[in-house]
Request: fold
Amino acid sequence: MTISTAIPAFDAIERPTKDALKSAASLGGRQMRYLVDTFYQMQELRKASNNQIGSMVRAAEAGKDMEPHETLDWLGVQLNTMERQLSRAFEQFALAHMPGRWLMSITGIGPVLAANFLARLSVHPWHCTNPVLLKKREKGAEPVFPCDPDEPCQDDCGYRTVHTAGGFWRFAGLDSTMEWKEGELRPWNAAVKVACWKFSDGLVKLKNNEGSFYSKLYVQRKDREMAKNERREFADQAALGAARVGKKTRAYSFYKDGLLPPGHIDMRARRYAVKIFLSHLHHVMYVDEFDRDPPRPFILEHGGHAHMIEIPNWPFE
Reply:
């Protein structure tokens, strides 16, 4: 009996067919959320793989270890290929919806982030009130999905219209009046909060890009916050911060002088730009869903404020 010593070649990742890509446009929110989560998990795995390979290369150059194996290179290439293929599916999904096309028109938002926001935010979401399901979902021990319109599990389960952008802010954890008390369910959606952070991180990177509308808002707000900080207008917040951090920290050196640290100021500016973006996204989604503008914010209708930041690339053709 002859034993073959031929080494089998690795199978290449199968490319999605045109029909498979087109079908991505009809994916539901739950399905798209799963794909987006899978994409980010693969991305982290690919980064870890690349870091491992880089560490091996540096060790080999120093004569301390063997060179990285070709199998590791192959793994990184496959993961990168999967990311690109999924991005194509996200693009099809985003372009199939008017809010998605508007999102894709914004500098700094690509297919992945556009699909992420579309899959997780809605002005007319289904709301499940079953406390048992909500508690299980919060613990994250296993995949737990809310009921759906075909089989509501509680009498008060149903669609809830989000009439104002404040609903998006609260869902993203950007409402400063919200508190997460011990023993209670998280009052915001962690995945949406992460998506907003990713968006804000892009704004910082694009701050010198003339085409980035929301980066300009970030820069303007940061300049304003820095000026107010220099005038000690946040001294009361600084006092609270000084009592919260260790005296040997760099942050304490600012707090004790009545100032907020640079990182704190930066995050304030980021949150401002993200909240304006969410307000604009809410408006776009509301018009798409109900074919009319959402109610004007209370502060504009009754508070004497007249200025409203215009939505970029809107109306969208």
Strands lie at 126-127, 158-159. Residues 29-61 form the longest helix (33 residues). Confidence is low (pLDDT under 50) at residues 298-305.
